[in-house]
Structures
1.
Amino acid sequence: MGRMNGYTKLTGLLGHPVAHSISPLMHNEAFKITNKNYVYLCFDAKEEELEQKVEALKQLGARGWNCTMPDKIRMYELCDFLSPAAELIGAVNTVVNEEGKLYGYNTDGVGYMMSVQEAGFQIIGKKMTLIGAGGAAMAILVQAALDGVKEVSLFCRHGKSWNHAQEMTQRLNKETNCKVRLFDLANKELLKKEISESAILTNATNVGMAPNEDQSIIEDPTMFHAQLVVSDVIYNPRETKLMKLAKEAGCPTFNGLYMLLYQGAEAFRLWTGTDMPVAHIKEKYFREKE
Ligand code: NAP
């Protein structure tokens, strides 16, 4: 954190659990480096407590906050205004408090798109195959469509998220220039065909996340092709089994670490109007080998 005095502005994280989060480290260090008189704290909030805790932060004049699961959807309902991406996604992970009016944003998708750039790839005007239909997948899907990815083939299982994925697909086809198509993940032939036409494959499910490192959403290495970039939103472990299999098949890969960094950088910019010193934060907290 930077200097603290009577003028210090409050920001923080709401969610359950939150104590393990890297966000306080990253934001307080960034406030210090940029000499911003802000502080970032963690506030444990279960979904049913969110409204009360948001009201308390408003009363205290907090500048803004992040929300993590399970609060992102309820937070969306509590905002007075929404960014186009937050409105489409139906979830808010960053709030800016402008004199008691709450502006809701979703920076997860921005974070992902920045991480693609950071890894050295260009996917605007190209085709993406995206797996998953939860919060991370929807944020990536919406931002990709808004940013100008030409086509997204979305694969998910015929489970609880299917209907929502279907609604999102229809809405994005109507409201953006991106051509979005939804497929059943069980159809491996179609998955292979769509991947063969894609510049990037993204896993946005939690399959392969610790402690289930031995799992991969794709097990068959013939699904990959040499021109394909393979990315995972997971950052624990740093190299998922999916990434390992893709690497063995000759594909460049990257994980979700910089998605996490850049969703925070975007929130920092929204609160302070200043860019986060990402090179410094990266070096201090986001080293690949940890
Ligand atoms: P979520 O809302 O619970 O969504 C999980 C998705 O994975 C759902 O679509 C679920 O399908 C699907 N899924 C789970 N197991 C599956 C399986 N065996 N086969 C096929 N699909 C399966 O979770 P989330 O918030 O999107 O998070 C997903 C992952 O992204 C987590 O690992 C999280 O840590 C990571 N994440 C990373 C960042 C970052 O900054 N890097 C940000 C957000 C999230 P059903 O709906 O059918 O259950």
2.
Amino acid sequence: MTTTLTLVQGDITRQSADAIVNAANSSLLGGGGVDGAIHRRGGPEILAACRALRASHYGKGLATGQAVATTAGALDARWVIHTVGPVWSATEDRSALLSSCYRESLRIADELGARTVAFPAISTGVYGWPMDDGARIALDTVRTARTAVREVRFVLFDDAAHRVFEAAMG
Ligand code: ADP
């Protein structure tokens, strides 16, 4: 089965997709950037679902590189898939963890039966990952993933990020 990769510029909370991926933090209880935007527009149902996860299987939160799904609340999607990107380090290569975020999110999407999945550029905001390297890891991982997802859409917040992804796409 072929997976189509698309790049769009915009706000991921305005996208229509089966699943929207959140660049969450390990607490699952919200934060800034994409996370804040998803909870703001998606409404309290998402936070309630995250709290329920913390009260059950994710007592210590979600580990870096892992992914878990909740309702998408008021977003135009069926699910939000929360994944925790690594914080960029100049001294330690954490790219396997960043790659894992994309792979694990797609694995969860497959479990759910999601066919269209929208991703932000995980770790490239507050977590400081350089956009060009983040784009390369994102695209390489999705291209080589075994998944039934038909469309993976990268939603880049600004024109600069969009151009970096376009260049990395080749
Ligand atoms: P992280 O903590 O994983 O770095 P951030 O949310 O801070 O997560 O940033 C990840 C990327 O998402 C950054 O490139 C940022 O510019 C972008 N971003 C922020 N808000 C949105 C949004 N509403 N839609 C899409 N991308 C967003």
